[in-house]
Amino acid sequence: MSKNIVQMNNSFIQNEHQRRRYLMKERQKRNRFMGWVLILMILLFILPTYNLAQSYNQLLQRRQQLTELKEQYQTLSDEKDKESAFAAKLKDEDYVAKYARAKYYYSKKREAIYTIPDLLPR
């Protein structure tokens, strides 16, 4: 026994098909609109994210530069302290004479100078 299915083609069925096509087109339009909104939102979030990452990299570079400058400051401060201590020592006449004799090989009359490496006063 074979059953043949016949679709009715009356005005109600035609109206239902037309309504479904209309709803399908409306759904496609809504989905297309939501797709564009989603793309726009993604683009709006990409730019601040990029700027945030760039600012973070600059912050890291500045922190590294700050530590380097602090180290350089400490080194220069130590050198300044050494030089000021050396300048204070140079105010002493005996030290200046000893330093001039050792560094520049100055000597008194009939005095022989023998150089010893790394024995320069400082």
TrEMBL record:
GO biological process entries: cell division
Stored InterPro entries: DivIC (IPR039076), FtsL/DivIC (IPR007060)
UniProt-listed Pfam families: DivIC
Keywords assigned by UniProt, alphabetized: Coiled coil
Keyword Transcription found: no
Coiled coil (UniProt feature): 52-79
Highest rank taxon of the organism: Bacteria
Keyword Coiled coil attached: yes
PANTHER family for this protein: CELL DIVISION PROTEIN DIVIC
Protein name according to UniProt: Septum formation initiator family protein
